[in-house]
Design brief:
By secondary structure, this protein is an all-alpha fold. It has 4 helices and no strands. It starts with 8 loop residues before the first helix and ends with a helix. The mean pLDDT is 86.
């Protein structure tokens, strides 16, 4: 039996809000355990990181926002990324339903 179409919205949004609020904790924990992005690690091991030239720094480089500390920058980048992804997904879903 299929669930009503709107039954996922509140729990789904609640999970997203919790994850966004916890994003600074995840950022802090990754620093504590020494986590590094696998692609960055591979570039350092092969020596490619020394030769890299960044074409664009990105909207939120390293999940930070200039002028904000690390926890606040991580929170803002998580919020913006989540909202943009959610809006895109909902708009795509609406178009596909038509």
């Amino acid at each position: 039996m299929n669930a009503p179409s709107g039954s996922w919205r509140r729990p789904g949004l609640a999970v997203l809000v919790v994850l966004v609020v916890l994003s600074p904790v995840f950022g802090w924990a990754s620093g504590v355990v020494g986590y590094a992005e696998p692609l960055e690690h591979a570039a350092e091991v092969t020596g490619a990181a020394d030769e890299a030239n960044s074409a664009a720094s990105g909207l939120f480089p390293n999940y930070s926002v200039p002028g904000l500390g690390a926890p606040a920058g991580t929170l803002v980048s998580a919020l913006v990324g989540t909202v943009l992804t959610l809006v895109l997904a909902l708009c795509t879903g609406t178009l596909l339903e038509r």
